[in-house]
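Progress against Task 2.4 (sequence-to-structure conversion) is shown through the following example record, which the project officer requested during the mid-term review.
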Amino acid sequence: MSNIKITCVIVDDEPMALNLVESYVNKTPFLSLKAKCNSAIEAMEFIKEQPVDLLFLDIQMPDLSGIEFSKMLPKNTRVVFTTAFDQYALEGFKVEALDYLLKPFDYAEFLVAANKASTWFSLIKEKKQSNVSNQKEFLFVKSEYKQLRIKLADVLYFEGLKDYIKIWLKNNPKPILTLMSLKSLEEELPETNFMRVHRSFIVSLKNIDVIERSQIIINDQRITVSEQYKPRFLEFITNNSL
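Structure tokens generated for the chain above:
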């Protein structure tokens, strides 16, 4: 039995299929059902407000297919496809689905897929814990012909300006300017402490003072969380709220 809780949503345009998968989820101790949706559009609106770990997702639905919808999901939201049509199996694995359930499936088949999801999320959790214990404490950045040692604990946020980055630090009214792209910097930062929230900003999660609607306030600076990065940021808020 898994020692983690996996939040999930069921998406299917057939009421009987929705109810069947709901009964399977309710039998599985490590799954926590957050919503049942009868279309991908409805599910999209739900997870914008309340991100989840896993979707049990039908493929053939009106307006927006499960395959199309899966390509729009945040990177940390995974999918188990449920469908009556086996010709979609290859497409399902191309979009990195955790599993593919061919209707009609019984609880034993469902549980195999659920356990695959549990194994995947357990590995991700272990990786994050390992990253925390081996986190970088500083970076060297080139600025004005010098290599400056920047303590990551002192960073408030990074601001991207075309090919340059401004590094805003605690107790330092002027930023450090370095020639680097925000994308390459993002890959070097520990994701448990830093998050990209806008095309031009990566923020220190530990130094956020206030969250007000779609804005973060750090040291009196207001930074807007853009739509592209909102699902991941909402997940961070959910995981750290009372």
